[in-house]
Amino acid sequence: MPALPLPLAVICDLACEVSLLPRVRMAIAVVAQEIFAESPTTAGYPLRWNLAKTVLSPTEDQAAAMMVALVVSPNLLAAAASTGSTDPVSMAAAITDEQILSAIRQGWNAVAGVSPATVGAT
Fold first, then answer.
1. What per-residue string of b and e applies to 68-82 under the rule 16 or more CB within 10 Å gives b?
2. What contacts 48, CB < 8 A, 6 or more positions away?
3. Does residue 13 contact residue 86 with C-beta atoms inside 8 Å?
4. Whole-model pTM?
5. What pLDDT score was predicted for residue 120?
6. What percent of the chain has pLDDT over 90?
7. pLDDT tens digits for 8-44?
8. What is each CA distance from 62 to 12, 55, 57, 120, in whole angstroms?
9. Residue 48: is its pLDDT beyond 70?
10. Going by fewer Cβ within 10 Å, which terminus of the chain is more open, N or C?
11. Structural contact between residues 70 and 107, judged by C-beta atoms closer than 8 angstroms
């Protein structure tokens, strides 16, 4: 695994950045709606659907819990590091909405408890 582009303390500050939290909440709701539109034959669909139902209107606590996993996704880390700053507000502003949505989509199965073997079986 490559070295992290930012120190853990800086990543922690980014995960706690209040300006990023509302965007994460909205992105979670958008992805939940996408899950509802999936075919029931999608690998891991019952677990994916259940997570979507649970987080359709994500609370701040749910979004904050997901934020930890999101900010360590490679694309979000790279965007934050590209600022050359350790200021969490500046780093959060460098992260695009599409990067947040992509990170949530990529991590959905893991959060829902869908086994990689289940996904690979389709």
1. eebbbbebbbebbbe
2. 35, 38, 42, 108, 109, 112, 114
3. yes
4. 0.86
5. 66
6. 73
7. 999 999 999 999 999 999 999 999 999 999 999 999 9
8. 17, 8, 10, 28
9. yes
10. N
11. yes
